């Protein structure tokens, strides 16, 4: 018996699900439809609805696979945020070092303050 299951997934994870959509559809013998319906969450994130059409056992197996994809996508996103913080911190430290160096070089200039 064919049923339709609707579930909202985090927008940060939708890209990973889209990339694996065809492979998941073939492996689990279901049809995956990513709708344009979106909903805001209480944590400030946006969620998008995915329709899964197929038999109940196949849908359950597919949801287990999607949960693994979501975990990997979340880890990738957190790694990206950490790299971004590190780049910003490194740039800020370099900027402060440059300002201090420029100030010292100006103080050694005999024409400084004239």
How would you describe this structure to a colleague?
The protein has 114 residues and is α+β, with helices and mostly antiparallel strands. The chain has a single domain (3-107), classed as Ribosomal Protein S8, Chain: A, domain 1. The protein has helices at 11-19, 21-28, 56-107; strands spanning 3-10, 31-40, 46-54. It has a three-stranded antiparallel sheet with strand order 1-3-2. The radius of gyration is 25 Å and the shape is rod-shaped.
Tell me the domain tally. Answer: 1
The percent range for strand residues is 15-25%
CATH fold annotation? Ribosomal Protein S8, Chain: A, domain 1
Classified in CATH, the superfamily is: K Homology domain, type 1
> How do the strands of the widest beta sheet line up side by side?
1-3-2
- Unreliable runs, pLDDT <50, ≥5 residues? none
Indicate the mean pLDDT: 83
Helix content: 55-70%
Distance between the termini: 89 Å
What Rg, in angstroms, do the CA atoms define? 25 Å
Q: Any guess at the CATH architecture? A: 2-Layer Sandwich
Q: Give the tally of β-strands.
A: 3
- What is the C-level CATH assignment? Alpha Beta
Major sheet size, sense and barrel closure: 3 strands, antiparallel
Structural class: alpha+beta
Secondary-structure element series: EHHEEH
Overall morphology: rod-shaped
Counting DSSP H or I runs of 4 or more residues, the number of helices is 3
Topology:
Layout: E1 3-10, H1 11-19, H2 21-28, E2 31-40, E3 46-54, H3 56-107
Antiparallel strand pairs: 1-3, 2-3
Helix pairs in contact: 1-3
């Amino acid at each position: 018996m064919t049923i339709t299951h609707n579930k909202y997934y985090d927008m940060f994870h939708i890209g990973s699900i889209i990339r694996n959509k065809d492979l998941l559809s073939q492996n689990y013998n279901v049809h995956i439809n990513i709708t344009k319906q979106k909903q805001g969450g209480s944590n400030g994130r946006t969620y998008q609805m995915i329709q899964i059409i197929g038999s109940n056992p196949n849908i359950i197996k597919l949801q287990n696979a999607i949960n693994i994809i979501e975990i990997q996508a979340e880890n990738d996103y957190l790694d990206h945020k950490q790299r971004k913080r590190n780049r910003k911190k490194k740039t800020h430290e370099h900027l402060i070092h440059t300002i201090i160096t420029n100030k010292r070089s100006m103080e050694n200039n005999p024409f400084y303050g004239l």
